[in-house]
## 1
Amino acid sequence: MALIEEDKVRDIPGWEKNAPVPICMGGDYRALTFCCKPGYSLTFEFKCHRDETLRELGMNGEEFIRIKEEFSRENDWDSDLVCFGSLSYCCMRRGGCPRRDMALKFRYPDKNKEEIMKIYFMKKKELSERILRSVKDAEGREKVKPYLRLFKDSSLG
């Protein structure tokens, strides 16, 4: 089986090639960047694989939250407008999310929508790599290793 399934990736501005679809849609480990905060009931809980994916990598919910919230503070992504108080928990919805898009417009007021979304997905890619690099479990590290190579490969061209 190929590392990346063609129907499980998108080419989006800021991430460019092979951005993973969300975990709930069958995305790979990199898609944890689009997952929301553990510990809350979800509308689509029946198809959420976040906790299962974290367990598979040997990462607990508290560590996941710490990484996302640290990234949020570093990038000035905290916002009362979005779910869980941070853009780091926002999803991929390319078609738009009114709360996320408003929070991004406040964060980047001098940018147009296209520029904002490019920044957003570029930052989500950075967060994705940080999450995967934070996996400490030996088995989990082996599982994420091929995905970490994708970050290096995408920066080459």
## 2
Amino acid sequence: MLRKIFKKFGFLILAVVIAVCGYIYICAVGKEYVYVNKDFSSGVTVTDVSVDADSTGKVDIMKWEMTDRGLMVHLKSAAPGKVYLSTTNSNGQSIFVFYVHDNGVITYNNFFGDCTGSEKVILSMIVYLVILVVYFTVRYFKLELRNFYSYDNVLYLSLIIFAFFLISTQIEALVLKNGINGAFAQAMTSFQAFVIFTLPIVVITTAFVTVSNIKLIRKEGRTWRNMLGVILGLMLGIGAVLPIIIGLVMQAMPPEVVDIHIERSIVRYVEMTVNNSIYAIVAYLECILLGTIITGIKTARHIPKFDKEYIIINGCQIRKDGTPTPLLQARVDRAIEFAKMQQERAGKPIIFVPSGGKGSDESLSEAESMKRYLISQGISEKNILAETRSATTEENFVFSYDLIRKRHGSDFFKVAFSTTNYHVFRSGMLASQHGIRVEGIGSKTKSYFWINAFVREYIATIAANWKTQAIVVTLLILINLIGSLLMYISEVILF
């Protein structure tokens, strides 16, 4: 029972344990705080450090000194409340704000600001993220061995990519010593950093896809499907600059309507929530896109093991004269190429299973068209098992598998399939959904067609489990909302 609970909620339990241990540790060491101000290291002379009379809390100044690092003040909590630390120096007087909590912990600059021990907690968060990366990586490779074609492969890759970036932002928070509140803010703004970092890639990709789509439209005609690449690129590009546009619009609004210039107004926190949510969604979509690209390339370049007994050739539309189109012919040629490789390296023959029914505008079935082409390439008819009923990729696999089972006389046989390179992952995934274990091999196609078709596969990947995507997007919005709310409470209400 405990094993099942830990297996399902293990990382949540670990996060709670880290949070509780971090809180206990901060309570144990946080009653003393060493404040360091590097601004006083460049020839500024400090003559006095004292607690301002307007303070509602109290700290004891154990000692203060000028060091190579700057002004260093050793504080110890005495009474809860806000404390103003006043320094008299050669440039005049400077005020620094601290907060003494009821448990004696001293925080700097806001309610959840930097405190003694916070760097250890942030380091624990980094270790936690590293554990997540290791876990996702192990799960990814295990799943890849078990099922090369799975949406979870894309999901794990996407999480690994983003977790690595999130780790880098927490390392930055650790170096800057911004405290727990700063680390949380750094985590939220990591979405923005990720989007800005990848914006040049999105712009270049959009331009490249636009050129490819123009070629595709010239070859295939003007349809909305042939503009998917441009549409996706523009959406990601607009998403990246939308927060900037929102900021400019709000700044241009009259102060009596919205005054965004008030430093700690609720308007600024609402704007931060909206902008961070947009960045989070765009970053997530970009991670899914990167995961899809990597997975698609890996599956397209994959060469199946040379132990196959059958190879299914996925059908697509044929010419009016009944001959295969270049796209379909490339699939058949790739299957023949694999059969030759297997024969040369393993000495094992293979049965070709061209799969595809007859469309209303086709003179014969796609399977029959491929069969004729196979025979013309020197393949014996006895080594061809044509499946002529299917109308979709799923049916290609289901009907072909039934046909193979009848011919083979058992359920124990090994199958490969041949399709266009951009379609390997989705085809293999559809097969695995029906419990059909296959390995795919991809044929080349024109770059202008490949790019747009690959974008279709990306959209199809998201659409196929849209409920999961909707849950993730909702969680991202909630995380940003909670984070902004905590920052508002920390910086405005409680401080």
